[in-house]
Amino acid sequence: MSLKITDDCINCDVCEPECPNGAISQGEEIYVIDSNLCTECVGHYDEPQCQQVCPVDCIPHDENRVESREELMRKYLIITGKA
Predict the structure, then answer these.
(1) How far is CA 25 from the centre of its chain?
(2) How many Cβ atoms sit within 10 Å of the Cβ of residue 77?
(3) Which of 18, 19, 58, 59 could lock onto 8 through a cystine, CB 3.0 to 4.6 A?
(4) CA 34, CA 47: separation in Å to the nearest integer?
(5) Which residue segments constitute the domains of the chain, with CATH numbers given?
(6) What is the pLDDT of residue 21?
(7) Do 83 and 77 touch, CB atoms closer than 8 A?
């Protein structure tokens, strides 16, 4: 399951540089996560780094983008060119 950023985002800028896949970018009003690039840090870290640094806890799982750990690992391998 990829992650999403909710309207509670305060645009503090701490999540974007933490994403190893470059999935986080500034949207029109708040930061957004590209679900095609989000692997929940699978392949890089044990925990999603954006969730770890978010001071307002506004990065939950996106229930509309359910993916297993295996699917996230396949996405990681494709993104990093290790597939």
Answers:
(1) 10
(2) 14
(3) 58
(4) 18
(5) 16-79 (3.30.70.20)
(6) 97
(7) yes
Residue 83 confidence (pLDDT) above 90:
no
Q: Which residues contact 66 (CB under 8 A, 6 or more apart)?
A: 1
> Considering the chain, what percentage of its residues have pLDDT values greater than 90?
96
pLDDT of residue 1: 72
Contact 52, 30 (CB under 8 A): no
> Which DSSP string corresponds to the chain?
--B---TT----S-SGGG-TT--EEE-SSSEEE-TTT--TTTTT-SS-HHHHH-TT----B-TTS---HHHHHHHHHHHTT--
The token duo for 75 is: 């996405």
User: Over the stretch 26-58, which tens digit does the pLDDT of each residue have?
Assistant: 999 999 999 999 999 999 999 999 999 999 999
